[in-house]
């Protein structure tokens, strides 16, 4: 985990500090020195991944032709992007929630990228190459 440390001096009669969303401390008096340890949540990877996935989504075309994506695949990716965006926008999100959002969006993005339709000509070439390799393997082992 990444932390930042701060020391500050303050004056006042009553000061309320919220160290986390569940605990508050009230202090009375004239002068205090306060040392704070603040956990930093790194959302930069999530932010970059959301941007990349959104750009891929926006540039993709659904259909049945080579280079297109199966119908409905953009909606699935957009749903994953929206869920990740919710975590990114959540100011109370913890690092493990951010990391889980990165993993879920990365998986959806990989699935989307892998779903692009390969043209029939490319499939035929690939099947021919597999057939040749299988024949070569069969004759080499005898």
Structural notes for this entry:
With 142 residues, the protein is of the alpha+beta class. It is built from 4 helices and 4 strands. It has helices spanning 44-59, 73-89, 95-114, 120-140, and strands at 2-11, 14-18, 24-28, 31-40. The chain has a two-stranded antiparallel sheet with strand order 1-4. The longest helix is centred in the last third of the chain and has 21 residues, at 120-140. It is elongated and about 80 Å long. The N and C termini lie far apart (58 Å).
Q: Count of DSSP helices?
A: 4
- Proportion of residues in β-strands: 15-25%
The CATH class assignment of the largest domain is: Mainly Alpha
At the third CATH level, what is the topology name of the largest domain?
Substrate Binding Domain Of Dnak, Chain:A, Domain 2
Indicate the low-confidence ranges by residue numbers: 13-26
Distance, first to last CA: 58 Å
User: Element order, helices and strands?
Assistant: EEEEHHHH
CATH homologous superfamily caption of the largest domain:
AF1782-like
How many β strands by DSSP? 4
The radius of gyration is 27 Å
The overall number of domains is: 2
In short:
It contains four helices and four strands; from the N terminus they run ββββαααα. With 142 residues, it is α+β, with helices and mostly antiparallel strands. A hairpin with a 5-residue loop joins β2 and β3 (24-28).
């Amino acid at each position: 985990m990444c932390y930042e440390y701060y020391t500050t001096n303050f004056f006042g009669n009553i000061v309320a500090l919220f160290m986390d969303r569940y605990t508050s401390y009230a202090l009375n008096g004239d002068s205090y020195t306060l040392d704070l340890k603040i956990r930093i949540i790194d959302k930069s990877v999530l932010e970059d991944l959301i941007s990349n996935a959104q750009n891929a989504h926006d540039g993709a075309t659904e259909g049945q032709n080579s280079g297109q994506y199966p119908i409905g695949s953009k909606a699935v990716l957009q749903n994953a992007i929206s869920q990740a965006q919710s975590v990114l926008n959540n100011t109370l999100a913890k690092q493990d929630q951010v990391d889980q959002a990165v993993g879920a969006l990365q998986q959806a993005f990989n699935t989307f990228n892998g779903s692009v339709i390969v043209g029939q000509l490319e499939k035929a070439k690939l099947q021919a190459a597999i057939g040749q390799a299988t024949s070569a393997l069969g004759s080499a082992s005898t």
